Amino acid sequence: MPRSFQDRSGRFAAYHIKEITGGATRMARYIFITGGVVSSLGKGLASAALGALLQARGFSVRLRKLDPYLNVDPGTMSPFEHGEVFVTDDGAETDLDLGHYERFTGVPARYTDSVSSGRIYSNVLERERRGDYLGKTIQVVPHVTNEIKDFLAIGDDEVDFMLCEIGGTVGDIEGLPFFEAIRQFSHDKPRGQCIFMHLTLLPYLAASGELKTKPTQHSVKELHSIGIAPDILVCRSEHPIPEKEREKIALFCNVRKESVVAAYDLKSIYEAPLAYHREGLDQAVLDAFDISPAPKPDLTVWKDVADRIHNFDGEVNVAIVGKYVQLEDAYKSIKEALTHGGMANRVKVNVQWVDAEVFDTEDPAPHLEGFHAILVPGGFGERGTEGKIKAAEFARTRKIPYLGICLGMQMAVIEAARNVAGLPDAGSEEFDHEAGKKRFEPVVYHLKEWVQGNEKVQRKVSDDKGGTMRLGAYDATLSKGSKVADIYGSLSIEERHRHRYEVDTKYREKLEEVGLRFSGMSPDGRLPEIVEWADHPWFIGVQFHPELKSKPFAPHPLFADFVRAAIETSRLV
Ligand code: GLN
């Protein structure tokens, strides 16, 4: 009987899982990536860079993240705490590490590339309620671990390498079932099918001028105690690792010396593939799998990326007017997409975070003058929105390039309605819902039903928090002759969404009369996807999140052109 891994709506029941030990035509090799000593060592980046290096050697890869927290998905977690929510084409709200994976490998992440303890437990409990376990006592081993193993096995016949990163650090209580599951999984598979890569830190003691290996030894000991023997150790270090220390680590941690790979600090994350290659990571991985002779890598793309990062001609200053400005990770993909836009134009993009709330009471001009472009990102809730509306007005009237993303588009529409189209009470239903009373004319409103492909989709305000959004990839049709059609070089696009509210087409005529063109619409013409001011050098609002699809080797056209427009502005001042 095929088992299946499902989310709470049963949406992915269609992903049938082969029994782990058999049935596959091609069986992926698994690389499990764990971390120790401290958190935030850059496991996600190391995984992504390794993925890119394996691709450079001609292998196909898929990257996965297993997160020990108990939230069912990061959709409802505060960006202040958890950073950005990365949305996949198939509509999953995932950890921002999946963004790294996509930016480095270009492989679109899927719903089944991210899982949390919360989802695993909720699946197990749901099965228990359904009676699937036939009255058995439900335990972490084997029921929870089996659920994790089922997740790991999804799509194991599709790629050469599956890279699975375990969130947190070894020894965390919540992480234990994941560690136990990967240990079991590696035993279920034929010998040589799975390897373990462990990231640690070598702290530097300035007083004695030494790198210390003891925390790494302890962390590996912890792994050994749960039955996992790492094949590769990636050691973060601020200083070169002397040969002697490398030998010591190899000896005490029971790994080969060539498998102790140094990870030094980098100026840009996009140097990581070349840096890890220099340190021999990909070779160590292929050796661990006994793949010989190793195919030669083609690193042309990454050399070009590194060249564009280091050799630029000029700089532009872009203001991001947002709410979560204290934690830059909250807008991770936007920051990266701007960097890519800079690379496309060979300029450096200096990003400055401006707190939108400041404009609630203050004139934005002194804060925004001097920037070559203004970006208003996505967000939820009313706080800071009056400030964003003022930022949109500033950009419109001063003819500064403006890119409004999701909420940033909605604010631009409200600004146009209030200040140009004669609708002084224009606002968003989102804020009325939040306040529990009607105050605004809802030019942005809650749409309850729409079409995706050939299916009708419905949502209610009262739906549980995780399930009420328009999520994932949707098509849009662009108007001939519009600025966006020119930028995309196409009249039909597909972009990722994550929002509850929509601009109401009821106001389209009024807004177009004053010059705000609805230049992108859903194919059925019901959902405004893009607006642009006809008589402005560069003012575009998009209901979707173009930043999620930008890559260093393929900058998103909107970001590339936004930065180009910023360069033009910089030449005027
Ligand atoms: N809060 C707005 C909505 O739900 C915008 C969401 C966003 O910017 N991602 O429609």
Topology:
Layout: E1 3-4, E2 16-17, E3 29-35, H1 43-56, E4 61-67, H2 79-82, E5 86-87, E6 93-94, H3 97-105, E7 114-116, H4 117-130, H5 140-153, E8 161-166, H6 176-188, E9 194-201, E10 204-205, E11 210-211, H7 214-225, E12 232-237, H8 243-253, E13 260-264, H9 272-278, H10 281-288, H11 300-310, E14 315-322, H12 332-345, E15 348-355, H13 358-361, H14 365-368, E16 373-376, H15 385-398, E17 402-405, H16 407-419, E18 426-428, H17 429-435, E19 441-446, E20 449-452, E21 455-458, E22 470-478, H18 483-488, E23 492-499, E24 501-503, H19 508-513, E25 516-521, E26 528-533, E27 539-542, H20 557-572
Parallel strand pairs: 3-8, 3-9, 4-7, 4-8, 9-12, 12-13, 14-15, 14-16, 16-17, 17-27, 18-19
Antiparallel strand pairs: 1-2, 5-6, 10-11, 19-24, 20-21, 22-23, 22-25, 25-26, 26-27
Helix pairs in contact: 1-3, 1-9, 4-5, 5-6, 12-20, 15-16
Glutamine binds next to β23.
Condensed summary:
The chain has 573 residues and is α/β, with parallel strands linked by helices. The protein has 20 helices and 27 strands.
